[in-house]
Design brief:
This protein has about 375 residues and is an alpha+beta fold. About 25% of the residues lie in helices and about 35% in strands.
């Protein structure tokens, strides 16, 4: 099985048009197409967004029985499908099922005009499935016959600050980390490229990162340490009602400009205490991006054997405080450092603590 990249990510949401409007206004995405009953998508409405190599499909069910409606009712808005680009979707489906994946949708070719895309679906983690997509990379069509392209994907523009899906972070119930790693190794041929134990105050969590041989698909898998105090991973699992994608990391080549610009558009980011930057030079030495630029924006920096990386969490806009976005800028780094992840989760913990305090004082329920 040859997996090339993250072809697209599909989120099931309560209102696809409203979610699309927010992502376009704040993150600079473009609307590339629409889908609904008139395009062959019975019982649903979809909006296709894009920015450089990122494709996000937002789908809302038009009836309570649609799987998008059922997903949103249980989990709230969130990632339901992570699609893998493949050289041969039929062979990938057969191999995945033979090695333990549950078939969700058998391979089928969807065609319009001269465009043909082969798609199939198999199980992933929790209620998230994987769509296997075989397409002509030179063809601008997305899913011909299902999503009508209202605009051709644009080349890099001045306003395009984001360019690819770097990784997806997945929260798993305690005891499922090892079996999930083994599943991706056995079924999809992924390899484990990084692991660490993360401590945030009295909380603890285990993390392992698996990646496709191509390097095009990466999952950070996290489970809580239930011997420690319950924390944000436990909160996610409770509010999301099971395993799921906690955040997508979107890559940028200029994180300072991206954070400034998105902040001006209304995106709020997790805060980082000044003490983090006071100790930064002693920990990392000279950074590619000046600390004076990082400090006021709350951007974190770390390194691995190959180079540096810069990261920041956006605050969640979802009512359940589950899904959110991350921005990441890699300066040669291929994996993850050992300091950013605890700092990132510490920042997210401060955000959630502030939300808890506010809701308790107002007498409302999260």
């Amino acid at each position: 099985m040859e997996i090339l990249d993250t072809d697209h990510v599909e989120l099931y949401v309560g209102d696809a048009r409203a979610a699309a409007a927010q992502l376009c206004a704040q993150y600079g995405f473009h609307v590339y197409g629409h889908g609904g009953p008139e395009t062959g998508l019975a019982g649903q409405r979809s909006v296709l967004l894009g920015q450089r190599d990122i494709r996000i499909l937002l789908t809302s069910g038009l009836s309570g029985g649609h799987r998008a409606s059922r997903y949103v009712a249980q989990h709230g808005d969130g990632v339901a499908i992570v699609a893998f680009g493949c050289t041969d979707a039929r062979a990938a489906f057969a191999e995945a099922v033979a090695t333990g994946a549950t078939p969700v949708s058998a391979p089928q070719a969807v065609t319009r005009g001269g465009s043909t895309v082969v798609v199939a679906e198999v199980s992933g983690f929790g209620d998230v499935t994987h769509r296997l997509v075989q397409r002509d990379r030179a063809d601008p069509q997305f899913l011909p016959g299902l999503v009508d392209m209202s605009a051709a994907p644009a080349g890099p523009g001045e306003g395009d600050l984001l360019h690819a899906v770097d990784h997806a972070a997945v929260c798993l119930p305690a005891g499922e980390l090892e079996s999930t790693v083994a599943y991706y190794e056995r079924v999809f041929g992924f390899g484990m490229i990084f692991q660490e134990y993360i401590e945030v105050g009295e909380q603890g969590m285990h993390s392992k990162v698996v990646q496709s041989p191509s390097g095009g698909v990466t999952f950070t898998l996290i489970q809580p340490d239930i011997s420690r105090r319950a924390g944000q991973i436990d909160d996610f699992l409770a509010w999301h009602e099971g395993a799921g994608v906690q955040h997508l990391a979107l890559s940028t080549h200029d994180i300072v400009t991206a954070v400034r610009t998105l902040g001006e558009r209304g995106v709020e980011f997790a805060q980082t205490p000044g003490s983090y930057y006071d100790m930064l030079s002693a920990r990392l030495g000279e950074t590619d991006v000046p600390v004076a630029d990082l400090r006021p924006l709350g951007i974190l920096v770390d390194r691995d054997h190959w180079g540096q990386m810069y990261q920041i969490f956006a605050k969640s806009t979802h009512i359940r405080r589950t899904y959110f976005n991350e921005l990441i800028d890699r300066h040669g780094a291929r994996t993850f450092g050992t300091s950013n992840i605890p700092a990132l989760y510490a920042a997210k913990e401060r955000e959630l603590a502030a939300v808890r305090d506010t809701t308790l004082s107002e007498g409302t329920v999260l």
